[in-house]
Amino acid sequence: MRERLVAMMNPAAGAASRSKIKDMSAEVVDNNPYSRLMALQRMGVVENYERIRDYSVAIVGIGGVGSVAAEMLTRCGIGRLLLYDYDTVELANMNRLFFRPEQVGMTKTDAAVQTLSGINPDVVLESYSLNITTVKGFETFLASLKAQSSHERSTGVNLVLSCVDNYEARMVVNQACNELGQTWMESGVSEDAVSGHIQLLVPGETACFACAPPLVVASGVDERTLKREGVCAASLPTTMGVVAGLLVQNALKYLLNFGQVSRYLGYNSLKDYFPAMEMRPNPQCSNPACVLRQKEYMESKPARDAAAKTKMEAEASTENECPVHLDNEWNISVVDDETETSSIRNTPDILPEGLVRELPDADSYAGPAAPVSSSAIDDDDDLEELQRQLDALNAS
Amino acid sequence: MRERLVAMMNPAAGAASRSKIKDMSAEVVDNNPYSRLMALQRMGVVENYERIRDYSVAIVGIGGVGSVAAEMLTRCGIGRLLLYDYDTVELANMNRLFFRPEQVGMTKTDAAVQTLSGINPDVVLESYSLNITTVKGFETFLASLKAQSSHERSTGVNLVLSCVDNYEARMVVNQACNELGQTWMESGVSEDAVSGHIQLLVPGETACFACAPPLVVASGVDERTLKREGVCAASLPTTMGVVAGLLVQNALKYLLNFGQVSRYLGYNSLKDYFPAMEMRPNPQCSNPACVLRQKEYMESKPARDAAAKTKMEAEASTENECPVHLDNEWNISVVDDETETSSIRNTPDILPEGLVRELPDADSYAGPAAPVSSSAIDDDDDLEELQRQLDALNAS
Predict the structure, then answer these.
(1) For testing the chain B interface, which of A89, A194, A319 should be mutated: the one with the most B CBs within 10 Å?
(2) How far is A286 from chain B (nearest CA, A)?
């Protein structure tokens, strides 16, 4: 597991094939790469599209979902992208979008920077070829999320996108984001390649990844055929492309303040079914940083209520001047229900149709310095109970 | 409008960076580009994945949706792809996936062949740089769909994917597919970039594109800001990536016989809402070829019923031998309701929530030799009625 930091790199192999553009223009000419994005303002979808240049997004895991998410954000003209992965490109990855056969052998982060800098030289790319689940990797990961960027005045990142393919790495991203109070979005694709999900996690406000066993979309495929020892997971460019698209769409809505940001959205491709739900934080969460963020969130309620009221009043008074305006329901809906912190953790029966718990419980996880052992995840009794739930769901 | 046919080309610029592979293998090794696809068999999702090599798919329109659809099918190892477009690559296309700045000025079909042949040299690529809405272009289009391929014993294509961005081109694809009795899938993305849809069209069995005014997903954005004269449409790589993913996923389900093939699936990205519905053919359809296909479909009902019965009995008897097996509900559901050919054309009130008619009526269209005039589409009275419907929907 190499741990190599390549910051602000623009390798010669990925030399830009267009020159940098100082300001985004809405001018409708063939040689303007931003005209169709700036048109979102004229169409009344986004109030200020160019603000996207002020934002930094970290993508953890540059595989089938993360690489496509990175390309989408790059083509949208995001200000700064931080890319984390420790793996190298193989021909076995060619059944998903993004990487090309001639990149086999390169680290995924280097190959991504090569391709992305050629597509849009305006985006500042930071590439971290490291494993965040090691102690040293976690330290570098945490430091990079907090670091001052040469790109902008503000420190830190605006959003973290988790595109990793395993439980341990998700728990590490969860730990880092809980410690930093950093909003993040999680994504996943099933081992049978036919379902996936995205989820928004706001420390203190929504369930964290340790508050309850992770939710996955039931595919209807017999789960007994999955997860055999040494069996290679299936994957499809379609499922991963859809999940990456839904993830980055949610990220754009969150960053640019339009539409409704989804809390949890599942994708069952066999039935084209998209279950949605919300998850409140668990006051008994095993993650101390999560409990601390929950306490802060409760304490800041009066200030949030006042800000929301001021904003709503300001919008009401300017409504006649701006006839085309979309309320961001995410930002103004915080006044309701928030004193109630009940968790759905102990009531699995209220899950929407088509969603199941991936793992029985997350309590045993103790943070990145002492990663969960595989024996804890493979607890026989819990897995048997989970299997019964899955069987019941598949039989229905 | 150039009309240039470039068949079976593999330009030097897109020289393959891996050698061709004779048979797909499920072996789990890093240098096998098909291991994660062949794993779909072991997972019980697909019965015979390698059959994908026998199939030919035509993609009309190699823009934001069509290019990504082509890349997905190429990475899945489709047998043969036929690509149709008359446009060239511009920097203004760079806000969507696939094309790269160094391809500016190339025809979209040539640029696509360059990229796709580099990704997977096993796929036979046919590139048609022509405009299907001209008389000569339509003739070439029709002939190419029927032609014997050097790739396989069978003639013709197995599926046509329409990824064009205008009504006239969709009506031309509809005309060709009705004439040939060719199953096709239509796709579209709204001008405000935040919604889209896919639709399955089986001549004689489902509504054709002329049976009823096209359905689009209501985005909630004020439609009065859209479709102003000379205003450039907005587009996002996210929405187009999701629509391409849903489209190719539906194509894979149709070709490889797994899951449920969607008839109509909408995508409202502002609310992450996915309306679904079915549309029966209109016995009074203005397209004579559609009416002929409807008649044939009715007449073949007894043979279809017998085949379905035989298939169900065969599956029932082998069920114990193959515990992991997904019924293809699409293929075995034809015994119900099919004698009823009522159309939803004259009952717009039964549309599912979030769907609206894009145009008031399609009757005025007379085939590719006499394309519909813009004045027919812009009929003031009909548009006013449509505007009232849209306003009511947006206000709700």
Answers:
(1) A194
(2) 31
Q: How far is CA A377 from CA A35, A132, A173, in A?
A: 49, 19, 18
Give the predicted TM-score (pTM) of the model. 0.81
* Residue B383 is assigned to a structural domain of this protein: no
Could you tell me if B130 and B140 are in contact, meaning their C-beta atoms sit under 8 angstroms apart? yes
- The active-site residue out of B232, B285, B290, B322 is B232
Q: Is the distance from CB of A242 to CB of A267 less than 8 angstroms?
A: yes
Helix axes A288-299, A301-318, angle to 10 degrees: 60
Residue A259 has its nearest CB partner, among B35, B242, B271, at: B271
What would the mean pLDDT of A296-320 be, rounded to a whole number? 86
User: For B48, what's the count of Cα atoms within 13 Å in the CB-facing half-sphere?
Assistant: 6
Q: Indicate the angle between helix axes B108-119 and B66-75, nearest 10 degrees.
A: 20
Distance from CA of B303 to the nearest CA of A (A): 28
Would A261 be classed as within a structural domain? Answer: yes
B357 min Cα distance to partner chain A (Å): 20
pLDDT in tens, A239-275: 999 999 999 999 999 999 999 999 999 999 999 999 9
Examine residue B243 and state whether it is found in any structural domain, yes or no. Answer: yes
Read off the CATH number of the domain in which B230 is found: 3.40.50.720
Domain that holds residue B284: 55-308
Q: Do the Cβ atoms of B97 and A71 come within 8 Å? A: yes
Looking at beta carbons, which residues of chain A come within 8 Å of B235? 36-37, 39
Q: What is the ipTM of this complex?
A: 0.81
Three-state SS across A203-228? CCCCCCCCCCCCEEECCCCCHHHCCC
**Residue A171 domain flag:** yes
pLDDT at A383 over 60: no
Q: How many domains does chain A have?
A: 1
CB-CB: which of B37, B42, B226 is closest to A43? B226
Query: Per-residue pLDDT tens for A8-46?
Result: 343 434 444 789 999 999 988 899 999 999 999 999 999
Residue A376 has pLDDT above 70, yes or no: no
Q: In the annotation, is A290 catalytic?
A: no
CB-CB under 8 Å, B192 with A43: yes
Catalytic option among A76, A232, A290, A322 = A232
pLDDT higher than 80, residue A345: no
DSSP, res B18: S
Find the residue in B nearest to A89 (Cα): B30
What number is the average pLDDT over the span B171-188? 97
Whether B126 shows a pLDDT value over 70: the answer reads yes
